[in-house]
Amino acid sequence: MTQQPPHPVPSSTARDDRLRVMVVDDDDAFRSFFLRVAGRAGWVALAVDSPDRALAALSSFVPHLIFLDLSFPDMDGLAVLSELAPRCADAAVTLTSSCDPEVLRSAHRVGGRLGVRMLTPLPKPVTMDDLTQALRAFESEGPALTPTAVREALDDGLINLVYQPKICLKSMAYRGVEALARWSANGTAIPPGQFVPVVERDESLSLQLLTHVVARAVSQASSWRGAGARCAVNMSALCLADERLPQRLTDTLRGTGLSPHDFVLELTETASLQNPDRVERILTGLRIRGFTVSLDDFGTGHSSLMHLQRMPVNEIKIDQTFVATLEDDPRSDQIVRLMVTLGQTLNATTVAEGIETEAQAEILRGMSCDEGQGYYFARPMDAEHLETWRGMWANKQPKDPPTAED
């Protein structure tokens, strides 16, 4: 069942439970090569030569996996990803291209921010081993999860929290945590990269996960709470469609002994601004109640400054992609320095994520970045281990009390 248009598209039927894959590429030789390899691997494969044909084929062929070239005469791969995201929500995408590796990595990140499950890109030329390994890797992970599966996992208490500490870079004092959702089923961990994109495409599920995380963090507050310590939780942009969001979260905290001042809501900067007035209104409502609003992954989107202009944020979180190259790339150094200065100008706390070395921490401290998190300080851990870690961390620090500036 490996065919190319204009032949009939192989339909997705219940009688054939094999995995289905589509390749979208205008190179005749690559499509033929792809069909041979996929067929031998036991997949139902479809090869199309243009984005338009790929989108048309989705009415009768629902792939589990799509291999997508980035360059076409009339439409680039990013535009195709934007079209695929709402039409083929359960499919994973592997980008294939001979373009510059940095362009390929950037396109991969853009696809993820669109809510597409992005797999490791394949630079061209693609060998038989490359393609076979990519197909086998997907087989081992399995098809994309469904919203129903995630909702059932939440209802069954299978999604729990781990916490990554946040540190004041000036005093090295503990400043709180970021709560991260983790799903374990029958002893097997399901990576966030598989279930989070599913959540971020479903408004009601996004709200359910947010309230679940806040409620679970409240129940484990004794492990992370301390003088001035706050718990950061990730908030999908879809949550901003709910006008009652500030009240919902406030109600979740009522009677718990905690207040909005104990929480940071980390909003990815790719949040939709199709209704900027509503977004501004809801975020302002959250700020009025006492929540800190953080702009997560700052610097990776196409409209960072627009978000800062319209969103009442009081924290900026510097994306780890810039932190990772601080020691080697002068441009990263200058960009991060500008971000920190911008945060200071806006009276917003700056937080660097993904700190993995002492040198990175020292560079950021020298820039007067306020807080940091990453493997250099601690990996994410459960509530029980967090309490132990906090005691050990406190014993490592100077005994002089931190100043008010800390």
UniProtKB/TrEMBL annotation:
Superkingdom assignment: Bacteria
PROSITE patterns assigned to the protein according to its UniProt record, in alphabetical order: EAL, RESPONSE_REGULATORY
UniProt-recorded name of the protein: EAL domain-containing protein (Putative c-di-GMP-specific phosphodiesterase class I)/ActR/RegA family two-component response regulator
Residues that bear 4-aspartylphosphate: D69
Domain EAL stretches: 143-394
Transcription regulation in keyword set: no
Keyword Nucleotide-binding in annotation: no
The entry's keywords: Phosphoprotein
GO molecular function: cyclic-guanylate-specific phosphodiesterase activity
Swiss-Prot/TrEMBL GO biological process terms: phosphorelay signal transduction system
